[in-house]
Amino acid sequence: MAEEVLSQNEIDSLLSALSSGEMDAEELKKEEKEKKVRVYDFKRALRFSKDQVRSLSRIHENFSRLLTTYFSAQLRTYVDIQVASVDQLPYEEFIRSIPAMTILNIFSVPPLEGRILLEANPNVAYAMLDRVLGGRGSSVNKVDNLTEIETTIMSHLFERALENYQEAWGSIVDIDPMLEDFEVNPQFLQMVSPNETVIVVSLNTTIGETSGMINVCIPHVVLEPIIPKLSVHYWMQKEQSKERNPEDFEAISRTIQGAELNVLAVLGEADMSIEQFLNLDENDVIRLDQSIEHPMIMKVDDEPKFYIQPGQVKSKMAVQILDEFTKGGGEDE
User: Fold this and answer.
1) Residue 196 CB burial class (10 angstroms; 0-12, 13-18, ≥19)
2) Rounded Cα–Cα distance for residues 298 and 58 (Å)
3) Residue 167 placed within a domain
4) Which of 135, 167, 177, 157 is nearest to 74 (CA)?
5) Is there a single domain that holds both residue 321 and residue 222?
6) Residue 75 in domain
7) Which residue among 25, 137, 207, 314 is least enclosed by CB atoms within 10 Å?
8) E strands of the chain, at which residues?
9) How many domains does the chain have?
10) Domain boundaries, position 88
11) Residue 221 placed within a domain
């Protein structure tokens, strides 16, 4: 239990109340000894820690970004998808919270057991369907009488979106999502028992001028085998346990060693006006700022790296490296 630190004014008021008899010290001691009781609702059991919920939130934030890119390319219109909330609640409560007639995509995620539900609000789903069929993305809610063609188009649209879900989970577990069923009435859908705890990730979705929610419902049975991997400690250990692959290191080293650099020996520099430059003529002499008593500078990709002196090797001009370049050293004129 967190301790509360009292200010000096609160301490003075408490001592004053005890001395005046407004508060009884014995009563305070009795309250301290009494057991603290906290109400616990077994129908709303919290089976995921805050740390695990945050990890699920990070995974689905990545999923929302991938989904935004995917739907933008498919629908060729403005799409914005963001995580609104990540909650854990009984399955029955989730079913009651969604519309009576909606778009339900049920898919398995082997090797994990159980199934995951992706529920799309009819307004969002019909805006997508209208765009695919060449419309402006208007939404007309007629989910109760979907045609076979509309059902096929819509199920294929969400089925291809599952590739993004696989990528979003890639850092935790390698899953292979497969669409198993497409339903419109949640009352006909019984994935788990009514009191089973599920994680519900709500995504705020905007398609063109239409807005709505996409909910991802993940039962506890699906996440149970990988719950230890949802902790921050696992993420940190995973990063620390990464070892350098010798083959990758050698390949990177060979690539770097073969990279070409622009090496320049600077004889000196000079400043002049444009008028002086335009009036240059044959046999004119340009005075450089480099003294013959001081070493020259070698630049590598325009960065000063070495002090050098000019010379000759056989019949070719060359430079000899004297020292590494240090700012403020060897540049006195």
Assistant:
1) middle
2) 49
3) yes
4) 157
5) no
6) yes
7) 314
8) 79-90, 103-108, 115-120, 178-183, 197-207, 210-219, 263-266, 296-300, 303-313, 316-324
9) 2
10) 44-236
11) yes
